[in-house]
Amino acid sequence: MSTYSVIIPTLNEERVIQRCLDEIHSGSELPDEIIVVDGNSVDRTREIARKAGVQVFLNSQVNAASGRNIGLMNSHGEVIVFTDADCVPDKNWFAEIKKTFENDSSIDGIGGPLVALPPLNKVESFWGKTFLNEIMPSPKVPTKISGRVMSGAFVTANCAYRRKILLEVNGFNEWFGNQAEDIDLFWRIIDHKANLFFIPTIIVYHSFPDTVRGMMKKNYRNGMSSSRLQKIYGSRVNFDGNIYKVLVRNIGKLIRFNLDGYYGCLQTLSHLAGKVVGSIKFGVINL
């Protein structure tokens, strides 16, 4: 039977880290160890984590990619499980992960869906629906993943890999920092011909930005992520006509005084801004 380590990168997460750790500790099965890797928080994140009885390591580089690599290097599990501090794992989350790996020794990695927590306001409701239904929709049945996809992509809010495969691909590429570092890892592991499955019963509940500024910041970062991925995986020039169709639809809604149209325009324009700045920064044309 394999051993399991859960790794959680943090930065100023005192508001949510206790909830995340409580949910893991109250699950129907428990991992062998939980590791929090903190990017020099100035709040009580590390204090809360230590009081919860988990291992805490410092990450001087601050970004999530380096934090997860530090967690990997200091962990002992044969299976490495990833989630985030603002997540609420389902009661059976870890039990489902463990069952999947124990039932099939050929599986190298698994991912599961994010489910929106009850939204605090209309901004969070809009962004949660947009992200989960349009940007990164999830398969509804167990699905073998064999290509560089976004539908069913393994995000580090909810995925697990065998240690062996992570070491074979040299862990996370820290050049990505906080921008698509999980998708880059996922695609490199796919290119490594690993045996990967998306399992809909491995559920993590997730919050989304609940302010207009937070939503725009997140979408700007997603645009930058797109340009980073293009730099490594795409051609020098990429034009995504779909995003402009979405922008036109949102402008139409805005003209009809539809609040979703307003949010949609801000979301799309901030994403495009990130793509443009990323194009300049990374030497690609990503429009």
Ordered list of secondary-structure elements with their pairings:
Blueprint: E1 4-10, H1 17-25, E2 33-38, H2 45-51, E3 55-58, H3 64-74, E4 79-82, E5 87-89, H4 93-103, E6 109-111, E7 114-116, H5 122-135, E8 143-145, E9 159-162, H6 163-168, H7 181-191, E10 196-198, E11 204-206, H8 212-233, E12 237-238, H9 241-255, H10 259-282, E13 285-286
Parallel strand pairs: 1-2, 1-4, 2-3, 6-10, 7-11, 12-13
Antiparallel strand pairs: 4-9, 5-11, 6-9, 8-10
Q: Could you walk me through the main structural features you see in this protein, from its secondary elements to its overall organization?
A:
The chain has 287 residues and is α/β, with parallel strands linked by helices. The protein folds into two domains: 4-206, Spore Coat Polysaccharide Biosynthesis Protein SpsA, Chain A; 212-286, no CATH class. It has ten helices and 13 strands. It has helices at residues 17-25, 45-51, 64-74, 93-103, 122-135, 163-168, 181-191, 212-233, 241-255, 259-282; strands at residues 4-10, 33-38, 55-58, 79-82, 87-89, 109-111, 114-116, 143-145, 159-162, 196-198, 204-206, 237-238, 285-286. It has an eight-stranded mixed sheet, with helices on both faces. Strand 1, helix 1 (17-25) and strand 2 form a beta-alpha-beta unit. Helix 8 runs parallel beside helix 10 (259-282) and helix 9 (241-255) runs antiparallel to helix 10 (259-282). The longest helix has 24 residues, at 259-282. The model has no long low-confidence stretch (mean pLDDT 95).
